[in-house]
């Protein structure tokens, strides 16, 4: 699930860097705000994002089967710092020579996947999670047009079968996409998010 011919490692780097930027905007009581991820505060969402970074970094190094790599950190007293360190770790792992050509063990997805495909999973997840954080804080997401176009291409490849969506799965059921939707809005709706319910300022 990736974009043919695209530099998926670079696309992922841009998405992860934007996620770091918006997480770093949070302060004080922001961490207890509700997020577009139902039932999760911002602190819990960032803990999940951090765990995914650690897990994917381990997968890029050939150690993705280890359950410990995918656990949320116990100490989230400084969420932005913990998340920033995890982001640096995964970007380093993905940027290592040959990483995108390896097999990644992703136990949460039920198997091993080619490196480019696995990094594509991570990329679309972090476009959406960066938006989750931005929406929680009421701020705008800043991603280049080519990144948004690539994210939409990946989102269109995500299976829309209701049996693979909802609680326990990566994404909620797809929503209707109104005519004239931009690439970010279409991506979010295809992956079960409600952009109208979480307005942001420019």
């Amino acid at each position: 699930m990736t974009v043919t011919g695209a530099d998926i490692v670079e696309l992922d780097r841009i998405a992860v860097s934007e996620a770091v930027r918006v997480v770093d905007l949070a302060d004080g009581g922001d961490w207890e705000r509700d997020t577009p991820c139902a039932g999760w505060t911002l602190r819990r969402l960032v803990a999940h994002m951090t765990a995914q970074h650690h897990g994917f970094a381990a997968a890029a190094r050939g150690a993705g089967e280890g359950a410990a790599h995918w656990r949320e950190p116990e100490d989230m007293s400084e969420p932005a710092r913990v998340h920033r360190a995890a982001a640096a770790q995964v970007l380093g792992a993905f940027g290592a020579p040959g990483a995108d050509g390896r097999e990644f063990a992703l136990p949460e997805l039920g198997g091993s996947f080619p490196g480019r495909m696995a990094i594509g999973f991570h990329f679309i997840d972090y476009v959406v999670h960066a938006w989750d954080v931005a929406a929680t804080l009421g701020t705008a997401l800043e991603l280049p047009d080519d990144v948004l176009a690539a994210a939409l291409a990946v989102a269109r490849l995500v299976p829309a079968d209701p049996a693979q969506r909802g609680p326990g799965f990566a994404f909620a059921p797809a929503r209707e996409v109104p005519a004239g939707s931009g690439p970010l809005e279409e991506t979010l709706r295809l992956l079960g998010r409600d952009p109208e319910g979480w307005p942001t300022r420019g």
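The two ends are 31 Å apart (CA to CA). The first helix runs from residue 8 to 23.
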